[in-house]
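Please fill in the sequence for the structure shown.

STRUCTURE ENCODING:
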């Protein structure tokens, strides 16, 4: 899907599911939320949250991109500090209150 205007969030989650004692359990293994803002068909990175990598599994990341230069500002966090999708949507709404 191509977004012509507004904010787009690409959500990728890798989940592990198993049956234990007759119940299905689901555990998140990897998370990635990548937000872009679009205007006139052209997109620019705005924000990205990533779970830990293989060499640093407990270090989660927040990338905020400068809109004029595209430079990436990296912040690290723990799994407990990592936001859920609704918090990321709220964050983007406050960054771009006129995007609809």
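FILLED IN BY: designer on duty
SEQUENCE:
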């Amino acid at each position: 899907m191509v977004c012509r205007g507004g904010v787009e969030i690409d959500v990728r989650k890798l989940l592990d599911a198993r049956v234990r004692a007759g119940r299905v359990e689901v555990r998140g293994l990897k998370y990635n939320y990548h937000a872009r803002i679009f205007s006139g068909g052209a997109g620019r990175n705005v924000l990205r949250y990533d779970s830990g990598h293989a060499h640093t599994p407990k270090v989660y990341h927040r990338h905020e991109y400068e809109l004029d230069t595209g430079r990436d500002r990296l912040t690290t966090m723990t799994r407990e500090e990592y936001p859920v999708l609704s918090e990321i949507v709220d964050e983007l709404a406050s960054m771009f209150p006129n995007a609809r």
